[in-house]
Amino acid sequence: MAANDRKFIVFIGPPGSGKGTQAQIIRERLGLPQVATGDLFRYNLKNNTELGLLAKQYMDAGELVPNEVTIRMVEERLSREDCAKGAILDGFPRNLKQAVALDKMLAPYGGVTVAPLFEVDDDVVVERISGRRICRQCGAVYHVKFNPPKRDSICDVCGGELYQRDDDRPETVKTRLFVYYKQTAPIIGYYFCRGILEDINAMQPMEDVTRALLDVLAKYGIR
Ligand code: AP5
Fold first, then answer.
1. Residue 139 near ligand 1, beta carbon < 6 Å
2. How far is CA 188 from the centre of its chain?
3. Which of 52, 138, 212, 216 has its CA 20 to 30 A from that of 61?
4. Is the pLDDT of residue 4 over 70?
């Protein structure tokens, strides 16, 4: 595969807008791995690594983990074999410094291919996050009302236990939204200026969001 045939998709959107849900739905179909910085931090925390313990302080407060460690972690992740055809970046970049760092990492492959922007109202974010449940074992995402598991608190995929994230408490969600508007929203203009920003109405039911997303990706030769 030629270097610039790699496809890098950057999901942008507030917490709870459905980025992780959609990445889980489309990753196999597209044959691209989901590189989710939040999941990488949670994995490190579960394994009690130094990085996990550092990240926890910031995540619990709803703040961003410092750029230096986050950028290094993503660079290492993207260098792995499973990213040979590209990746779905879910949760990175989260500010302009990270966006510039990502451009440097991807320069040999033609840069970011497309940046879908998941648009949802703030009150929907709060409702989605308060009902979210995640599998401790495989990371599958559920919602008590919009996407409930077949058996209460048990994952349909692997039978693991479902839990609520520590940073999904209402006070932390407010800070995460504030951080999104202040630090992450500027990257919307960054990708808009390059002509690769694509609005997705993420207020629709999940299947309709998937359809809209796949239509947009097809325009960029991703199918
Ligand atoms: P991270 O884990 O990335 O959290 P986030 O961006 O806040 O996004 P979420 O995972 O909350 O939401 P989502 O958009 O994936 O929504 P989901 O699909 O789950 O980051 C956590 C923390 O890690 C950060 O606060 C920061 O501290 C740190 N961090 C991460 N990346 C970093 C970075 N680059 N730099 C520095 N720090 C970083 O959906 C939400 C719920 O809604 C689910 O229950 C789902 O079932 C439901 N749902 C989804 N779609 C629909 C729909 N269409 N209709 C109805 N319900 C739906």
1. no
2. 15
3. 138
4. no
